Fold:
Amino acid sequence: MSEKYLPSNGTEGEIFFDDWCRKCARDRSMRGGEPLDECDDNELCDIIARAFRGEVDEWGYGPDGEPMCTAFVPAGDPVPPPKDDRTIDMFGPDPLLNEAIDRLIAERV
Structure:
């Protein structure tokens, strides 16, 4: 993924939220419609907040040319702990996460 994605308008943003954020385990409010005030900080995705400021690196274009989120975790799956930026990645990308993203992309086609 080389090119970053930011929705150009509210409709595009809602489509992205429907395709990704509302199916992701990272944000309880977006996924389940819970009021923000009833969610703990660890139940809210900071990527969504950063996107509204134009500061998101996790949104880009997938192999199919469609927008995607590289931090997507299917609803119901455990959210992995934050990546330690001070430790080298010894094992490469997570194949289960890649498989889940591929399934979601295939469902959209």
Observations:
- Residues 10-108 form one domain.
- The chain has a mean pLDDT of 85.
- DSSP finds four helices and two strands in the chain.
- The beta strands are 59-61, 67-69.
